[in-house]
Write a structure and sequence with these properties.
- By secondary structure, the protein is an alpha+beta fold.
- The protein folds into 2 domains: about 80 residues, no CATH class; about 60 residues.
- It is about 15% helix and about 20% strand.
- It has 2 helices and 8 strands; from the N terminus they run αβββββββαβ.
- The protein has a 4-stranded antiparallel sheet, with no helix packed on it. A two-stranded antiparallel ribbon has the order 1-8. It has a two-stranded antiparallel sheet with strand order 2-5.
- Strand 6 and strand 7 form a beta hairpin.
- It is globular, with a radius of gyration of 19 Å.
């Protein structure tokens, strides 16, 4: 999520350019997002405030909220470019990408109850791959700035619909 990368970018600039100290977080927390209507569907009626997940043209999954009730188009085609906070007219429905609401914590899409809990993963070479390859347990030598988890992030067994 870009909230993390924006935070990190700001902290690194403050460290590198301004000489301020920087201590990275020791633990990352992972949560689930639940859309009220699941993935986007063709020719489907959406009510005001329904949320859907959409694989946009940028090949990423985005959360959209119905801001004008209506029925989606017969096909997704290239309707969703994946631009932050964009409003898309999909058939007669208008759906708005929710990056700002997610970053502000106002999207209200994280499950609650039913044994749900965020999962903590400690920052370590064992838990996170180096940027040079998936599964690496040595310090990063790659330059693409990406990483992946070296183990499964396991959520507790649900006792409700999440």
């Amino acid at each position: 999520m870009s909230a993390l990368s924006d935070y990190l970018a700001n902290q690194l600039v403050a460290w590198y350019r301004r000489g301020q100290s920087f201590t990275p977080p020791a633990t990352s927390y992972f949560g689930l997002l639940k859309s009220t209507r699941g993935p986007r569907a063709n020719s489907t009626a959406y009510a005001l405030n329904d949320t859907i997940s959409v694989v946009a043209n940028d090949a990423k999954v985005h959360l959209y909220k119905c801001t004008t009730a209506g029925t989606s188009a017969a096909s997704q085609s290239t309707l969703y470019p994946g631009v932050d906070n964009e409003a898309i007219t999909d058939g007669t429905a208008v759906l708005t990408e929710q990056k700002a609401a997610l970053e502000a914590g106002t999207a209200a899409v994280e499950p609650s109850g039913g044994s749900y809990a965020r999962v903590a993963v400690t920052a370590s070479l064992a838990n996170w791959a180096g940027s040079q390859s998936a599964g690496s347990t040595t310090a990063s030598t790659g330059t693409n700035g990406t990483t992946s988890n070296n183990g499964a992030v396991t959520f507790p067994a649900p006792t409700a619909d999440w």
